[in-house]
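Quick note —
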Amino acid sequence: MLLSDLEQAVALGTSNIDVYPIDNVMTQVTLHRKLAEAGYLPTSASRKFSMRVLADEFLRHAGFAPHNGHGYVRGTCSRDTVISDQYSFVYHEHVYGYDDCDLMGFGVNAVSATFGHFMTNTHSRSMYHEVLARGDLPVVIGEHDTTLDHARPIILRLPYHGTIEKQRVDFARVPEDVVERLHGLIQAGFVRESARTYDLTRLGWHWYVNMMVYLMPKRERAVLNRLVVSQLAPGERAMDISELRFRH
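Predicted structure written out below.
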């Protein structure tokens, strides 16, 4: 099924193809219910990884190269290219960018992020219109530690885009545990260090999502872990431990 879908996608002749698994926490409840009724089991972490490797090899052979964690661009890169610099989506440059990249979101449920602050618009369409009509802003504003902004290039940009420029990162303000984990990834062969940049290796690119979690500060990683564990409890959306744990 996967190869058939990829063959048809390539045959369309488009310049870009994106391949990524559906986030089972954010998907609609109806989808979870229909899958359960049809008797489908959750896709295991090992199978998802195998599908990622298969899709990567197929698309590289078809003349595509990755330009971020899940996007491919048709071009002239060699099969040994880890991440192509031929194409980049500006939106992703800001979402997964350096600490001076702001993101302004407009509309229902939109999220904005600036240095030290984040803003979330209401998820209710009717409330959004009512509040705007009154001349107010339907938004919740929060603050976060600015060390997270300084660490963002390492935690998000490096895994997602495959490279960061050292001169654009204020390492003195990045949490120590983030820097320590970056050095650990270098020693493990996931990241390559040069005089000017840190770059993913081919091995590191395959594990970019896991790398994002691994590079998070300890406190934020604990919060995310609690969120994931809470989703394992029976509820409207199905999530299984096999989707998280790799079996040898």
